[in-house]
């Protein structure tokens, strides 16, 4: 599982306050904790008004990359801003994100064409979020045509099929599971990602829903996810699922995570 | 840390990718193949067995240690032969009829092989007459090691010992038994010569039976 640590995001109230107060220690500590939890990328999202986003995001990226070696996930709704940030980042990481909305891919893809940067791509376009699997896959096809045009190998893409909230869904997560399976079938080397906790919005005991969804999505082919890596129950469920699916030789990833106390209830 | 200690640490931690390289390096430094085997591999696996017995490690951790040791043995075997080390004896091992468990049996076979035996592994679900056949084909066999992991297949241990007695070959070999439900008392009861509770002590036992 490619773990994208989600905790450094200004839309999380405590992090938003830390950003507003320029609390460097808070951001740095959160970077270190997520790196220690085994994150493959640490997402950095300012979630501030557009006029201050450039300076805020650059300040945050620097703080994080000076605190940990883990590659960054540069997170902004503004594709131009993301491209402006790339020269400041020490080593290639992840772009979060593009979609078929507007000209996002035409801004981002050429900028990363000859680099090792990877990119999250959401399956929505100018008409919004398609409500059927068929329509989401049409957006996917359009996206892959763009990737081909700009020479982005599928293995550098993390496709987010858009995990929506279960509480208002009529058929549970079946549609998104179908989309995940189809994407993996068409491009075996592509990554499928998603924001796991979206699914449990406005339901009680969200963590249980998140875990159950993770199991189903991993089984369908999700191999990348944006979530809280400090959530030891969810992380444990992810490692256990991969072991059960035969993707963890000798269960050694699972056992190592246990030994390093990254999963399960910490020993007293 | 000496090279041999590095090998031992790599075996204990199941670092399968680096063991062969470390063994080559140790040989290049002039460490004797038998020291590499005894200290770097056998002692390391004994320590792994000890940790497993004390519930400090899990089965997969023991298995990757065994896998790492195997890589090292592959490099060492030709060197040991070149050194003129003859096998100390020939041993037949197998899991008895009706029982398909092979993990423990394989570990025991590897430890015994590491201890210097030539091991003939008949696999799992081995009927008594197959053991006897193998004994006839290898008249120089010194020890027969029988494994059973289930209470329901323990009687097959007795059947196999009985069949060896009936075949008239009982006096030509020593018989040792093992497996989770097996005890020293059971070994005594069915007329086996020895019992051991884990892979490391099985190797010690096999040597003592020569």
Number of strands of chain A: 8
Give the N-terminus to C-terminus distance of chain A in angstroms.
28 Å
The description of the largest β-sheet of chain B is: 5 strands, parallel
Distance between the termini of chain B: 35 Å
Mean pLDDT of chain B: 92
Total count of helical runs of at least 4 residues of chain A: 10
Largest interface: A-B, 4 and 6 residues
Listing every helix as H and every strand as E from the N terminus to the C terminus, the arrangement of chain A reads EHHEHEHEHEHEHEHEHH
Helix proportion range of chain A:
40-55%
**Content-based structural category of chain B:** alpha/beta
Indicate the radius of gyration of chain A in whole angstroms. Answer: 18 Å
Estimate nothing, just give the exact number of structural domains of chain A.
2
Compute the gyration radius of chain B: what is it? 17 Å
Structural class of chain A, by secondary structure, is alpha/beta
Query: Which architecture of the largest domain in chain B per CATH?
Result: 3-Layer(aba) Sandwich
DSSP strand content of chain B: 5-15%
> Can you tell me the overall shape of chain B?
globular
Q: What general form of chain A does the structure show?
A: globular
CATH topology of the largest domain in chain B: Rossmann fold
At the first level of CATH, the class of the largest domain in chain B is Alpha Beta
Strand order of the largest sheet of chain A: 7-6-5-4-3-2-1-8
